[in-house]
Write a structure and sequence with these properties.
Blueprint (H helix, E strand, L loop, with lengths): L1 H24 L4 H11 L13 H4 L7 H6 L11 E7 L4 H17 L3 E4 L13 E4 L2 E5 H9 L7 E8 L2 E3 L9 E3 L5 E5 L13 H19 L18 H6 L6 H11 L3 H14 L5 H9 L3
Parallel strand pairs: 1-2, 1-5, 4-6, 5-8
Antiparallel strand pairs: 3-4, 7-8
Helix pairs in contact: 2-9, 5-7, 5-10, 10-11
Cofactor: Zn(2+)
Organism: Flavobacterium agri
Keywords: Hydrolase, Metal-binding, Metalloprotease, Protease, Zinc
Length: 298
């Protein structure tokens, strides 16, 4: 009986300690609250979904900020501070340039050190985890996630994301996916194949870069347990095709921004200034980011 009482008391103490930790992390500064309120006015409403679009075929529940906290999301500790990008396959110098710039962007977006690892070959992926589809080869995301990435997650990783040279598919029933990530295991995979319209050149480099930073930040957002956004146009919106990806902004809506700020604790003003500078220097659209920055009372 004493042992049972001791276990119950221990559980109560641990539970209270966990709640206290979550509560303390949940305390936004007055500056944070002012920021969320300021950028909320810039959120753009989602239109009614059309046939073929993600929300038409996937009826997902909204994940409010309170839902996010109650679901006990993955929250990196002080030692899990690095985002690792793992190129998978054989890349041209131009593709590696795009991955390098994606590294720069993600380091700003998440305010965490980001490292590109040396490329590894996809030749070791077995025949049962690859297929031919419409004249090109595809790799099975589940194999990459569970067999290649999960055993290799560095101790200091906030996220480990493979970037595949080849196209991806999640199972035999799907035609393809742009990427896939785990909500709890700190791993994900994306692909440049469709983002470059099959071949990357100087003429479509900026378009591919915009898509790659969009998909990469989206997948790493999932690694932080953030689900598809149902509140406004947002980088965390689901996407069924390239048209949806191309209209998805490289911006977090005010609801998702609250989740990211709570989890990562970054300075929103500093982050926005750096994002605007990055997009300007790389010839990408800065309008939405600049609008958020100009809306925030410094």
């Amino acid at each position: 009986m004493k042992n049972l009482m001791y276990l119950a008391l221990s559980f109560f103490i641990v539970a209270c300690s966990d709640k206290k930790e979550l509560g303390e992390k949940n305390r936004f500064s007055e500056k944070d609250l002012a920021y969320f309120e300021a950028i909320k006015a810039n959120d753009e409403a989602l239109p009614e979904p059309l046939y073929g679009q993600w929300r038409y075929h996937h009826h997902e529940q909204k994940q409010s900020f309170d839902d996010y906290i109650s679901e006990r999301p993955f929250s990196p500790n002080s030692e899990q501070s690095v985002i690792y990008l793992q190129p998978l396959g054989e890349f041209t110098s131009l593709q590696m340039k795009a991955i390098g710039l994606t590294r720069d962007y993600l380091e700003i977006f998440f305010q965490r050190k980001t490292v590109v690892l040396p490329p590894v070959s996809d030749a070791y992926i077995p025949p049962n985890a690859r297929r031919e589809n419409s004249g090109h080869e595809q790799l099975l995301t589940g194999h990459i996630l569970k067999k290649m990435l999960l055993p290799a997650v560095p101790d200091d990783a906030m996220a480990l994301m493979a970037i595949s040279e080849k196209d991806l598919y999640p199972d035999e029933d799907w035609n393809y996916v742009f990427g896939q990530a785990s909500y709890k295991d700190r791993i994900g995979v994306s692909s440049v194949y469709r983002l470059q319209d099959e071949y990357l050149s100087q003429s479509n480099f900026k378009l591919c870069l915009r898509r790659l930073i969009n998909v990469s930040s989206h997948e790493i957002g999932h690694m932080l347990s953030v689900k598809h956004c149902q509140f406004a146009k947002c980088v965390m919106n689901g996407s069924n095709n390239m048209d949806e990806t191309d209209v998805s902004p490289n911006r977090l809506c005010s609801d998702c921004q609250k989740k990211f700020t709570w989890n990562l604790g970054y300075d929103n003003t500093k982050r926005l200034e750096m994002l605007v500078a990055f997009t300007q220097s790389n010839g990408l659209d800065t309008a939405l980011l600049a609008k958020d920055l100009n809306s925030f009372p410094n």
